[in-house]
Specification:
By secondary structure, this protein is mainly alpha-helical. The chain is built from 16 helices and two strands. It has two domains: 201 residues, Growth Hormone, Chain: A (Up-down Bundle), CATH 1.20.1250.20; 205 residues, Growth Hormone, Chain: A, CATH 1.20.1250. Helix 10 runs antiparallel to helix 12. The protein is globular.
C-alpha cells in the first residue's frame, strides 16, 4: 500500500528513504541510459541502420519535439502524482534505450527515440519541479550543485566503461543498450516502490501558468535554450571539421569536461548561495560572450587546437552556472506555481531547438564565425536580462523595476 509522508516528517525516515536521497538516486541513474545511448548513437545508426545526414537530422528533430511539448506534463499531473510521473518517465527512458538495437531501421529508431525522449524530457520537467519543491531555499543552490556533480560522475563512469570494455570484451550494441537501459529502468522501478510518496506543503496548480511577473524568467529560459543549441550542435562539430578531432580525441574532451564538472559543480552551487543569482548569471553571460567571440576567432584565424579545446571546457563550466536560474525562480515563485511553471519553462527553453539548428546550419555553410558571433550576441542579450534581476529576488520583487512600477504585488 502506498505510504504518504509529509516533507516536514521526512527526517524521521532512514537516510536512504528521504526526499534528497531519492533525488540523488534518480540523478545517478538517468545518465546511465541517456549517455550510453548518446555515446553509441552515431556509430550505431551508421553501421547498423545506414543513416545519412538527412536521417540523423530527422532523428534529432524528433528527439527535441517532446521537450517542446513538455507543457503536457500539466495535463498529466491532474491524474498522476508528480513523483510517480517522474519515475515512470525515467523507466520509459530506460526501456526505450534497452530495445534500441532491436530496431535498426529509420522507422524503428524514430519511434524508440520519440519514446525515450518523452521519458527523458518529462522526467527532467518533473525532476526540476520536485527539486524546487523539496529543497529549502537556503540549501537549494548547494544541493543542486551536488546533484550536478553526481550526474557528471555517473556519466564519466559510463563513458570510461564503454571505452575500456568495448574492444576487450567484444561488446555488441545490443549488450550495451540492454544493460544501460535495464539499469536505469530497474532503478526507477525500485524508487517507485521503495520510497513513500512525499507530500509537499503547497499543492501545485494543475493548469497552465503564465504570469506577467515571471516574464524575466521566461526570457532567460528562452535565451538559455538558444545558446545551448549552438553549443551542443556546433562547438563539437567545429572540433571535428576545423581541427580534425577523431572519435577518441573528442571523447577525451568529453571526459575532461565531466571530471572538471564533478569537482566544480558543488562549488558552483555554493557560489550561487554566497554571491546571489544576479552576480553569478552576470559572470556566466560575460564569460559566454567572450568564449563565443574567441570561438569565432579560432575558426576564422586558426588560433590553435589547444585554445579551442580550452574554450570548450570553459564553455561547459559556465553553462553549469545556469542552476542560478532555478534558484531565482524558486525565490520569486508562488509555491503552488512551481510544477506548472517548470513545464512551461521547459517548453520555452526548447522553442529554439525546433528551428535554430536548421537555420544556423545554413549560416554555418556560409560563415561559421557568424554563427559564433550570433551566439556571443545572444549571451550579451542574456547579460542585459540578468542585470534586471534584483540582488534579493522575492515575490513582488522579481525584477529591479517591480517596485518602481507598482506599489502592489505583481499579478
Amino acid at each position: 500500500m502506498t505510504r504518504f509522508v509529509r516533507l516536514a516528517d521526512a527526517d524521521q525516515l532512514p537516510v536512504w528513504r528521504r526526499p534528497v536521497s531519492l533525488l540523488f538516486l534518480t540523478a545517478l541513474s538517468m545518465p546511465v541510459a541517456f549517455y550510453a545511448w548518446y555515446a553509441l548513437l552515431n556509430n550505431f545508426v551508421i553501421e547498423a541502420a545506414h543513416f545519412d545526414g538527412a536521417d540523423i537530422g530527422l532523428l534529432h528533430t524528433v528527439r527535441e519535439i517532446p521537450g517542446f511539448l513538455a507543457i503536457g506534463v500539466i495535463a498529466i499531473i491532474i491524474f498522476v502524482r508528480e513523483q510517480v510521473l517522474g519515475l515512470i518517465s525515467l523507466c520509459m527512458l530506460g526501456v526505450a534505450t534497452a530495445f534500441t538495437a532491436w530496431f535498426p531501421s529509420l522507422g524503428g529508431l524514430l519511434f524508440l527515440t520519440l519514446l525515450s525522449s518523452i521519458g527523458f524530457h518529462y522526467y527532467e520537467t518533473v525532476n526540476q519541479s520536485l527539486q524546487l519543491q523539496w529543497l529549502p531555499k537556503e540549501r537549494a543552490p548547494q544541493v543542486l550543485g551536488w546533484l550536478m556533480g553526481a550526474a557528471s560522475a555517473t556519466t564519466l563512469v559510463v563513458f570510461i566503461l564503454i571505452v575500456i570494455m568495448w574492444e576487450p570484451l567484444n561488446l555488441s550494441y545490443n549488450v550495451v543498450f540492454m544493460t544501460a537501459g535495464g539499469v536505469t529502468a530497474a532503478a526507477a522501478l525500485f524508487a517507485l516502490f521503495a520510497y513513500p510518496q512525499f507530500e509537499a506543503p503547497h499543492p501545485q496548480l494543475k493548469t497552465m501558468v503564465l504570469r506577467r511577473r515571471y516574464w524575466l524568467y521566461y526570457a532567460l529560459q528562452f535565451m538559455s535554450g538558444a545558446r545551448r543549441q549552438i553549443f551542443m550542435v556546433f562547438a563539437g562539430f567545429m572540433m571535428v571539421e576545423r581541427f580534425g578531432f577523431e572519435v577518441h580525441e573528442l571523447t577525451s574532451l568529453y571526459l575532461i569536461n565531466l571530471v572538471i564538472n564533478m569537482v566544480v559543480a558543488p562549488f558552483l552551487g555554493r557560489a550561487v548561495g554566497y554571491f546571489g543569482e544576479r552576480r553569478v548569471l552576470i559572470v556566466e553571460y560575460v564569460g559566454l560572450a567572450l568564449v563565443f567571440t574567441l570561438y569565432g576567432g579560432v575558426y576564422w584565424f586558426g588560433w590553435g587546437v589547444v585554445l579551442a579545446a580550452t574554450l570548450y571546457v570553459i564553455d561547459h563550466i559556465l553553462f553549469g552556472l545556469a542552476l542560478a536560474l532555478k534558484t531565482y525562480f524558486q525565490k520569486i515563485a508562488d509555491p503552488g506555481d512551481i510544477a506548472p511553471t517548470a513545464a512551461v519553462a521547459f517548453t520555452i527553453n526548447h522553442i529554439a531547438a525546433v528551428f535554430l539548428p536548421v537555420l544556423l546550419g545554413l549560416l554555418w555553410v556560409i560563415s561559421p564565425s557568424a554563427v559564433f558571433a550570433l551566439a556571443a550576441g545572444m549571451a550579451l542579450v542574456s547579460l542585459g536580462l540578468a542585470l534586471m534581476i534584483p540582488r534579493h529576488p522575492e515575490p513582488g520583487h522579481e525584477t529591479i523595476f517591480s517596485r518602481m512600477l507598482t506599489a502592489e504585488p505583481a499579478e
